[in-house]
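Changelog-adjacent note: as of this version, every example in the card shows the full chain rather than a window. The one below runs 191 residues end to end.
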Amino acid sequence: MTEIYLIRHGETAWNAAGRFQGKLDSPLTDTGVKQARACGERLAALGIRFDTLIASPLGRTRQTASIVASCGRFPDAQYDNRLAEVSVGSWDGLTQMDIDAQWPGRLDGSTPFDWFFRSPDGESYDAAFERVTEWLGDTGDCVVAVSHGLTGRILRGAYLGLPKSEALCLPVPQDVIWRLAKGRIEAISVA
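Full-length structure tokens:
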């Protein structure tokens, strides 16, 4: 039976500033480092032998995976593009004010959960769903996965078979480990 322990990267400088990262990067803040360490310590305390530690190849997830790995006996990190954050294309690195100024009206009628897919040249929900579903089919027995907010929502939604509208509303805290096992998802708090 596959068991996945999914975590979101720790808080980054751009998270704190309200800047949307997408495929771009910013480093973890001191808070983000503490969040990553807390996740690693909590995972180590579970006493589970993990087969794989896998992360998105982006810098913030690599940094988080490295911190997690330093907290216990974890396999060397591997990287998989299928866990990368959804790109919002031209909007990567911008704030909502930047987007409103450069693309007036483009976000009209959107919600806090679906605006990502209104970018003129970003990744579609269907494309992101397809790649995370493919990844889910390739996972090993007991996996720690380090990913992102939006990708983590889509991945958990795919795992549970949720419709897009429900998947995009899932919470994305940076101090929770999501245990995906036996068709259910359990939140393991690290705070």
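Structural remarks: The CA atoms of residues 66 and 77 lie 7 Å apart.
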